[in-house]
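task queued by scheduler; priority normal; single chain, no ligands, no partner chains; default sampling; output format set to structure tokens
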Amino acid sequence: MTKLLYLECTSGISGDMCAAALIDAGASEQAVREALESLPVEGFSVEITRVVKSGLDVCDFKVVLDAAHENHDHDMAYLHGHSRGHEHDCNHEQGHGHEFGGAHPHAHEHAHAHGRHHSHGHEHHHRGPAQIAEIIDGAAMTEGAKAIARRIFDHVAAAEARAHGVPLEQVHFHEVGAVDSVADIVAIAVAVDDLSCDGVVVTDLPCGWGTVRCQHGLIPVPAPATAFIAEAAGLPLAPVDVEGELVTPTGAAVAAALRTQDALPERFAIKAIGMGAGKRAYDTPGILRAMIIEPLG
């Protein structure tokens, strides 16, 4: 019987939102934790908790960075250019500053969880595609999950190379290659593989407006890497009147790597629902829903 994963991105999509929604929809939290614990990466721990978002009880997936890797993705004034402070990486999810291109989001409450809490300098802030591949290959996850993770990073790498006008092998990831994004993408890959769906539905992605700060200054929304991923993968965008980055580069890469169809079946039954919380305060519910659905004849 056909089983589809539907990512309902009305509030956008980022790495942490997606990881949380998939776990909430039934993906093995244990498998996700084991993969994250095995990563040959330092400087983080992971919290998987419950949080109230727009009055709803939702899952929150949070990568907690040590002092050497921390960024300011949740400082909304700074993120959108209204104040000065530390410079962000050009890659953020609905919550992390941009480092070399994209985007990233997070938020949470009740708690149990941990990954590894290490703390070694800044050697992990610049990684190339080869280093990312080594991290994925060294993780304790299935070959299917590794293939999904590679596809997601391939979309990001190609977009970043194009955005910065450099050959693919010369791309150096800051935000996307940093520990938080590695953890997000590995968690998503493991969760998707564990759910074992026959296809993934991703409909229109909301396109906010304005600017967001990256390592090189303010850049337009959608971020260049996000726009290039959408162009290359044919992702449909729908303008919405929300100032802010709703779809991060990582979120766009996840949609591009997973999507097998862009429209829901005419009739379907919902078998499971997961809701993941975003970390940034925008004029949206800030929730990504992941639904396991079964098409009806």
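post-processing summary
- Helices lie at 15-24, 29-38, 76-79, 129-137, 143-164, 179-195, 224-233, 249-258.
- The first strand starts at residue 4 and ends at 8.
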